[in-house]
Amino acid sequence: KQAEKAVHQKKEQSKTKCRKARRRHVNLVAEFNRRQRKNIWLETHIWHAKRFHMVKKWGYCLGNSPTEKSYRASYRAMTKHCLLQDLSYYCCLELTGKENELLKQLARICSIDAGITFQEACCLSGRFEGSLNLYRADRYPEDMLGPVTFIWKPRDGSEHRQLWIWVHPALKQDILRELKAIFQCSEPEEICITEPVTRSLQEENQMEVVLSSGKKRKKEDKEGEKAVPVKKIIGDGTRDPFQSYSWMSQMTGIAISDRSMEILRYRLIGPLSHSVLTETLKAASVQTV
């Protein structure tokens, strides 16, 4: 009886996969998705994770400080070469609508006494990026929300304009709530509940081949049943994937969209930054239909 009891109490040994199986693309994506369920990774996460001490802030996993004991490499890059920073964790709020209506309502959350506004001529044309401090509607100089940067889409001859406002993830919810209030955007533009994960076509084909053969590489879960195919996480650290990400105002005609993690943002610092951009970016040939 004691022997039978010991056999029943013995836990099943975990089946650890060999390194070759762990390094397969399908298994890597599944493991990476599992590790970023709570904190989203940036596009450059793998590169930073090998060279930086990572911290979890604002729903993201960010590189805090380099593992090197010397900071001379970064200082030398800033002063003599080029240093790149990944700022993709900054949240992008997109506003679309008539220019007059946009400027009329945006003037309520900023003041010319504090510096430039959204009506600045050089910024309004779309040639330059501007920065300012936002306040609660009609509350300047009290109740400051925080600093933001913005850029207008260049004019195309229409009164319909497009504006991108970049905010820190810690300030996103307050600023988004204030923008929806001044533009009276209470209803979502489209009720689109996106699944938090989607499967790529290539990975789906791989799973079909595996399941059709039924001999090897058959993915099974702990219960021995067919496992869920590998999927890719969608969303960002500041937004629930099951919440709406676009709002429309029926009265003003202004649409607000949350473009966080949809537009990557990098910052180049150093005297050779312009040379790096010149060598990296190539002008596309304009084709007229």
Written description of the protein model:
Mean pLDDT is 79; it is low at 189-201 and 207-234. With 289 residues, this protein is an alpha+beta fold. It has helices at 2-9, 19-22, 25-35, 45-49, 72-80, 99-106, 121-124, 172-182, 201-213, 273-280, and strands at residues 40-41, 52-57, 60-66, 83-86, 91-98, 130-135, 144-152, 160-167, 187-188, 197-198, 232-233, 246-248, 255-258, 266-269. Among the domains are: 25-86, no CATH class; 91-187 and 245-260, Alpha-Beta Plaits. A hairpin with a 7-residue loop joins strand 7 and strand 8 (160-167). The strands form four sheets. A seven-stranded antiparallel β-sheet has the order 6-7-8-5-13-12-9. A three-stranded mixed β-sheet has the order 1-3-2.
Give the secondary structure arrangement, pairings included.
Blueprint: H1 2-9, H2 19-22, H3 25-35, E1 40-41, H4 45-49, E2 52-57, E3 60-66, H5 72-80, E4 83-86, E5 91-98, H6 99-106, H7 121-124, E6 130-135, E7 144-152, E8 160-167, H8 172-182, E9 187-188, E10 197-198, H9 201-213, E11 232-233, E12 246-248, E13 255-258, E14 266-269, H10 273-280
Parallel strand pairs: 1-3
Antiparallel strand pairs: 2-3, 4-14, 5-8, 5-13, 6-7, 7-8, 9-12, 10-11, 12-13
